[in-house]
Amino acid sequence: MRKEEHISRFAVLLFITAFLSGCVQFKEATLYDGVEPLPKIEKPASINAVVEPVIYADNATDMWGLEKTVCKDASLTSDETYSGNEAIAVSWNRNEPGCEFAGIGIGWDGYAGKNLVPLMDYAAIEMHVKAKGERMFGLPIVLTLEDYSGGMGFAYTDNRYFERTTIDDEWQRVTVPLKDFDLETEGLNAGNIKQLQLELQQSGDVYIDDIRLIFYDPEPVEPWMEEETLPDPLRTPLTIFDDEFINKNSWGFISDACQEFSITEESPFSGERAIHARWIDADNCELTMFGASWNKWHPIDMKKKLETRAFQFQLKLEGGKAEQIEMGMEDYDRAYTFVKIKSEFLANASPGNDWIKVTIPLSAFPSDANFGNIKQMAFRFSGTGEALIDEIKLIEISAGD
Question: Using CA atoms, how far apart are residues 376 and 329, in angstroms rounded to an integer?
């Protein structure tokens, strides 16, 4: 026998001996160890085949919260309706002392348990809303689905769900897709829904009507924000008000028992118009404020300019003190930052001229708002007083000025 054949036979014998003695082990393997995805639920032929689609329409049988409390007044009314005979009229202010909760609940379909699972990718909650007074730039209502074990899912009705940009004095649709609800935080079981709650936040005064489930297919997103190239909102000098507000995007110019805010032609600092502000016992009023966007309501990132930019305007006091006026900014999470008009911001008035130049560096504002997501500027008033304001600008300053 040749030497090579002897070695080969010896190797085979060694392998067989090791195999039989258990020294060699084979591990079981599978061709695919991944998790098989769940099949996508097909769109139902109709909502009615799954669940009762009408949540509210003229019937308060399955509702709670239609009452007057320390911070909410809700009732059915026939004064204003989108359809049918009655709508929900609700006014609220969550800042009232003692206000722990403000909301309305609708069990619909006799509080039967409702399986929304087949509709989560295909349906939305639609309601029709109309402002009772001043137009609203948001709708501070949290839609809350609750199941029969206490689990909840939330969706905030921000303005991306509006038919128009603001809630005004005409009825409009507010459409919130079910797939936008947060189902994880409070563990909502979408297969056993008890009710829909409208949790009221901040303050508002609206009519609500015709709440129902509808099929929803998102419309193709049109690049409307890209159609117009906006100027740099931090360019300087940038005039926010001079005879009128830039882009005419202002609010709060009203007259009531607490305030009288208007654009007047009497005694402007320059040009033809100034802002006239008169406020009475403002500390006891709900809101004594006006504001404006200077970037067509697009967010502004001011973080990199906090040391080199300032707001500047002309002020003429006709009653009260400068400290009763605050200037501020609001971000898109509705947080405000304000600073009082202190003496260090005032320049000396020229002889025979009651107008005073006010310069407030952005670095003087407390970090109560997100400076990377600014929505607008605002003026807020306290006590009782009267003033003219003109030539509101954003200017450049040197760091350390």
Answer: 6
Q: What residue spans define the domains of the chain?
A: 54-215, 228-396
Task: Identify the three-state secondary structure at position 393.
Answer: strand
Residue 7 parent element (H or E):
helix 3-20
213 and 51 Cβ atoms separated by less than 8 Å: yes
With beta carbons less than 8 A apart as the criterion, state whether 205 and 75 touch.
Answer: no
Phi-psi label, residue 84: left if phi above 0, alpha if psi -120 to 50, beta otherwise: left
Percentages (nearest 5) of helix, strand, coil residues in the chain: 10, 40, 50
pLDDT at res. 19: 42
Which residue, among 305, 349, 354, has the nearest Cα to 329 in the 3D structure?
305
Positions in the chain short of pLDDT 70: 1-38, 219-228, 349-353, 399-401
- Give strand ranges (E) for 247-370: 250-251, 259-264, 274-279, 289-292, 309-319, 325-331, 336-340, 356-361
pLDDT at residue 271, rounded to an integer:
94
Query: CATH homologous superfamily of domain 228-396?
Result: Galactose-binding lectin (2.60.120.430)
Q: What is the CATH number of domain 54-215?
A: 2.60.120.430
Q: pTM above 0.90?
A: no
CB 336 within 8 A of CB 329: yes
